[in-house]
Write a structure and sequence with these properties.
mainly alpha; 9 helices; 73% helix; 0% strand; globular
């Protein structure tokens, strides 16, 4: 059931890592953290999902490339510096960062799903890990800052777009036997389009029930 190998171009992977790291650095700046705190949030936001994938769900005999390839950590350091020095100006490019984030979301969802299938996991589990690969960094960021994770609260579709990308990749590569690279490209386009439409039209999830008074008590 596992599709042929699909590899993210390293330049694309590094660009997406940079965009995710910048969002983490900005989150640290908004909370008044020092350079160490800003760097840690940039680190977990950018490669946290991949570390969860390779460290917990798909442990291998060799360390994850996220740690053996020094370019990833270098990109995080650069993103931290950019956020620290040009934070106010970086915010002006939030739409560009959001677009890069949307492309990276689909790519990581497809890549994580494919790697899980090659590892021998069942399709539902592979989709789950693909979504974690795409959105896990933001979840770790919120946990570290002691915030209720954004992915749990009503808001613009984000995790659902990653789900759409992972499901699309599985359907095309496993069910239709499409080439893995072609399936991944289509999945990225679907995820990107879905995410952009979500931003433009502000499509949002809604709460299934009102929070209890106990939950509202500080």
């Amino acid at each position: 059931m596992s599709p042929d190998a699909f590899q993210l171009p390293v330049w694309f992977d590094l660009a997406a890592t940079f965009a995710f790291a910048v969002t983490g650095a900005l989150a640290g700046l908004n909370r008044g953290y020092d350079i160490v705190g800003v760097f840690v949030l940039a680190l977990v936001s950018s490669i946290g999902g991949g570390l969860i994938r390779d460290g917990i769900f798909l442990p291998g005999k060799e360390p994850t490339p996220l740690l053996t390839d020094g370019r990833y950590l270098l990109v995080v350091v650069v993103a931290t510096g950019v956020g620290a020095l040009f934070g106010r100006h970086v915010k002006r490019f939030h739409r560009v960062i959001a677009l890069i984030d949307a492309v990276g979301l689909g790519a990581y969802a497809a890549f994580g799903t494919q790697k899980s299938l090659q590892f021998g996991l069942a399709v539902p589990a592979a989709i789950l890990i693909g979504v974690i690969n795409a959105a896990g960094g933001g979840l770790l960021r919120d946990i570290l800052t002691r915030q209720e994770p954004l992915v749990f609260r009503p808001g613009q579709f984000y995790v659902l777009t990653a789900v759409a990308g992972a499901v699309t990749f599985v359907f095309l590569s496993v069910q239709l036997n499409l080439d893995a690279t072609l399936a991944a490209v289509i999945a990225i386009v679907v995820t990107f389009t879905f995410r952009v439409l979500t931003i433009v039209f502000n499509w949002r999830t809604t709460a299934l029930a009102a929070p209890s008074e106990r939950d509202l008590t500080p």
